[in-house]
Design a protein that fits this description.
Number of helices of chain A: 25
Shape of chain A: elongated
Oligomer: homodimer
Number of strands of chain A: 8
Strand content of chain A: 5-15%
Structural class of chain A: mainly alpha
Largest interface: A-B, 72 and 73 residues
Largest sheet of chain A: 6 strands, mixed
Distance between the termini of chain A: 71 Å
């Protein structure tokens, strides 16, 4: 869908000042006009139609009554509209976070009980508080340590877990299990127990949804509908599936033949709820809440950044943390469960032309109306239909190509993906995520502790120096020239110590060591002490340490240190000068 | 002391092959000759004299019977001689590790009981197993993440804690406490309870030790003794203090006036002992054992590297882990407790002219003789004398200058020192070390997640590009030239995304972005995906992404990726070519 040109006054991100820089709504709200209103309202209508079935389905996925999904899509949308920096992000229940919610609460309460709901509310509260704290402390950078391969592997494995878990309502079998192996083997054992009516209903809905998703829009366009309208009709597929299957169930009284239906859904405003204040429960939920916060944040920020850049806008990660924190706190106090910015709904919102977060406010109003008025109509909706909605939604998240891509490009990244996927499928979402993060962090620390250190030599006929391993260069047995290609700090300076000790041990004629510092932007206190130790050891061995091409800011800080006071060697402006003076060629 | 020239055959580290590369003893042992033997034996004699009082004292510090200190100095020395890569490192009980041992066991058993000893043996076993595993898995780089400021702060705070804890045996007061505040306030309250005889004995011993340490050697030299002999006599100060105070105690029967003495010390070979196999205990000891392993390894490697470099030898950190692991396992099976390479004893060994690890074997034999023959002579040694030995030894570890130096040089490092010292003094050694490591790691991750990204412009009249903030350069509103001064990986690539999004939002005329990649040595899979996302977003915004000066190895890997397939822009050999083509000046 091509994007309509937007009114510049609203669309261009001007620098906001004062309070408006903290509350984006004051910025875009002041300049709100009628054209923007119309676009936002249209987008909200489409997103509402899409969100109703998704919200119901994701609440079931989290082990909660479907209506809780509606509650979780109202206050969070409103609060994000006030605090968020993305113009088009739509906040609410999403698949992976719902699965993580189910995994976190599964061992603490029985799904369907009031206790289970209270724990879900408490989880949203803790997650909101953590996001808010991370935002205020500007800890958004922590999300950087969730690498892309880990995220891809995690989402793929989670989607497979979700799909496997939905086979139970989809086929009417009783498959239980906490990991993929249990779910898959349970399914094989239960294949003869499949409930025919449920399986036909579920299968038909999956087929219908896949068809509307892939073939309906082109068909409608061929039939002469305008592209935009065809798109809206195709987007309504899940709503149509819900209406159609509910009607069929009611018409043929399929629920009397064992087809499970949603049943009575309470009608009315979201309830005012409070989290549990039981500190023991908080302790049990702390790690899951942190993981949910980080995963939710990363998903939300990636979507937000992608969409913002398309219109040359930008989002601010630390303020996104605050906005998502407020959204989750809102969910906790209005009967919801953990939420975040969703990929598909935000893309739909963007494609439908949403200009400002007001579209989110209108969407919230639409879902509120649904909670007030539409819930009786949900009575006959088969649970298999919700399961089908989930399966079709999550299968698009499966990306098995990540294995091939990382294997071809980078083995450490492949190892991180593999660990994440295997642990997630085998031991569950939390173990998988933790394994992936720890492995990629360990590989990262390992890599950063090995800086690239090259011995350099003079390129004949020039004044420049290159790696002796890659170029034909001149060196001298008395003089060792080393170039460190990274800033020196505690994690990598020991590698330099080791290298110099090694060279010292195998070069009996060595008299001078010159460190070419052209790539060193910073030397921390540990590295400074190590350089002092290196210099001391070289002095003890009768070798003089020198530096060349030290950058200005680094030199300024070194000036008053013990290192330069004890140094017997010199600091040369260029490496060529160093060599000319210490080991003149010829 | 000037170092005597050593026989070249033994002293020069020749490349070892086959099994000898794993067992250094096969390397130096083959070439062992009589001259080396004499030197090693002399060094061993001096180190033995020094080690006996130290071993007794550090065992008391760890809450164990003094004789355990002798046991812990025999098998570990032998095993290190077989596996170690340093020629002169002396392994045994050291102050900080003994304090950490006491802290680890304090809550699990009562000092002086057989259970306490068993826990100490188990701690040595676990620590040995961890060191061995880290060595075999080549995880020595993990020690790099203990930054120098954290180590200095930790050792200083530990030394203060140790000294405060020794006031009890030194003054005869009853001061109990797990942290510095408790110890110090306890002391003030108990000042009127000081046991006069004990305090006089303790004070006099401290004075005597300080005097032998500082004034005795110069005095002896002035009296005409050769420097070498004066040094040996001065080194014997602690032994003399032990003999003298024991004689005074026996002569004046001071133990009948309330002076606490060492009492009966069992005579004989170290016992053959086994660790506890109680997994619950292992779990409780896991974290302390890991911390003891890492601290011991770092202390040992720094000493080893410093001394090896003086003779142009080198040590291999991963094999040092194996050697220290074997030493601690040896300690566990011969009635000892956690050990590591000690600073002062290794320096003494080196100064005394030790040439090979055989000096360690001779030292072990000397201490074995002491355990067999000398222990009855220890009966009258006052506990205050051992306390005085400890206090004098650890006060030299206190380095309050670290605060001033880090404050002047680097505020993040200062914060890490301060946190380590305060947590160690206030909450104990484990909390202090963990706080220091986590804080410095967090500061490190924070720093690495913010790579240096400079907008560059053309220096007029040249073909070279410099940071626009520091130089007078030419730029163009259509073209943005960015130079990233680090390799791109998951931890820092989001900063590049943010920066490009920001520039995109504030430059309406932008048509081309060129990334100058001269400083990029590696691009991991996350960074690759981010670059694809950046390119996609720029394309959506009508801007073309280009690269310049991509290094050969990086280009080789990029060749078959989606990034280069989807890229609309070009990869230029030089940044100048890029600008000439995209935004020709004038």
């Amino acid at each position: 869908m091509t994007e309509p040109a937007a009114p510049a006054a609203v669309n261009r991100a001007l620098p906001a000042t004062g309070l408006a820089s903290h509350l984006p709504i004051l910025d875009w709200g002041r300049r709100y006009d009628r054209g923007t209103f119309t676009r936002d309202l249209m987008a909200a209508l489409i997103v509402t139609i899409m969100l109703i079935p998704q919200s119901l389905a994701y609440a079931s996925l989290a082990g909660l009554p479907p209506v809780v999904g509606l509650y979780a899509s109202i206050a969070p949308l409103l609060l994000y509209a006030v605090f968020g920096t993305s113009r088009v992000l739509a906040v609410g229940p999403v698949a992976v976070v719902s699965l993580m919610t189910a995994a976190a609460i599964g061992n603490l309460a029985v799904p369907g009980t009031p206790e289970y709901w209270t724990v879900a509310i408490t989880l949203a509260f803790l997650s909101g508080a953590m996001l808010l704290a991370m935002g205020l402390l500007r800890l958004g950078f922590l999300a950087n340590f969730l690498s892309h391969p880990v995220i891809s592997g995690f989402i793929t494995a989670s989607a497979l877990l979700i799909a496997a878990g939905q086979l139970k309502p989809l086929l009417g079998v009783r498959v239980e299990g906490h990991n993929f192996v249990e779910l898959a083997s349970g399914l094989v054992r239960q294949l003869d127990q499949v409930h025919a009516v449920t399986a036909v209903m579920g299968g038909a809905t999956v087929a219908l949804l896949l068809w509307t998703r892939r073939a309906l829009k082109p068909l409608l366009v061929r039939l002469g509908l305008p592209t935009g309208l065809a798109d809206v009709v195709a987007k309504a597929g899940p709503v149509a599936a819900i209406a159609l299957t509910a009607w069929v169930t009611w018409q043929f009284r399929l629920h009397e033949q064992g087809l499970k239906i949603v049943g009575t859904v309470p009608q009315g405003l979201p309830p005012l709820t409070l989290p549990s204040w039981d500190l023991g429960l908080w302790q049990q939920l702390a790690v899951p809440a942190l993981l949910i916060s980080v995963v939710g944040f990363v998903e939300s920020v990636s979507v937000g950044q992608t969409l913002a850049a398309k219109r040359r806008q930008r989002i601010e990660p630390d303020r996104e943390l605050v906005a998502l924190g407020a959204s989750n706190l809102g969910a906790a106090f209005s009967g919801g469960f953990p939420v975040t910015g969703g990929f598909s709904r935000s893309v739909v919102n963007y494609d439908a032309g949403a200009q400002t977060p007001a579209a989110g406010i209108f969407t919230a109003a639409g879902i509120l109306l649904a909670a007030l008025l539409l819930t009786p109509a949900l009575y006959f909706v088969p649970q298999a239909t919700l399961a089908a909605t989930i399966v079709v939604a999550v299968l698009s998240l499966v990306d098995l190509g990540i294995f091939k891509r990382t294997w071809a490009y980078s083995k450490p990244d492949f190892a991180a993906v593999l660990a994440t996927v295997l642990f997630t499928l085998g031991l569950g979402v939390e173990a998988g995520l933790i394994a992936g993060v720890l492995l990629s962090l360990a590989l990262f620390l390992h890599r950063t502790s090995r800086p690239h250190i090259a011995e350099v030599g003079l390129v004949p006929g020039t004044e420049s120096y290159r790696n002796v391993l890659r170029h034909e260069v001149q060196t001298s047995p008395q003089l060792l020239s080393l170039r460190v290609d990274e800033s020196l700090y505690f994690a990598n300076v020991r590698a330099l110590e080791d290298r110099i000790n090694e060279e010292l041990a195998r070069r009996p004629a060595l008299k001078h060591v010159v460190l070419q510092c052209s790539a060193i932007n910073d030397i921390d206190a540990s590295a400074l002490e190590s350089l002092e130790a290196i210099d001391q050891r070289l002095q003890d061995a009768g070798v003089v340490l020198h530096f060349s091409e030290v950058k200005g800011p680094v030199m300024d800080r070194l000036k008053d240190t013990q290192l330069l006071r004890q140094l017997r060697g010199q600091v040369f402006l260029t490496h060529y000068q160093a060599q000319q003076q210490l080991a003149p060629a010829g």
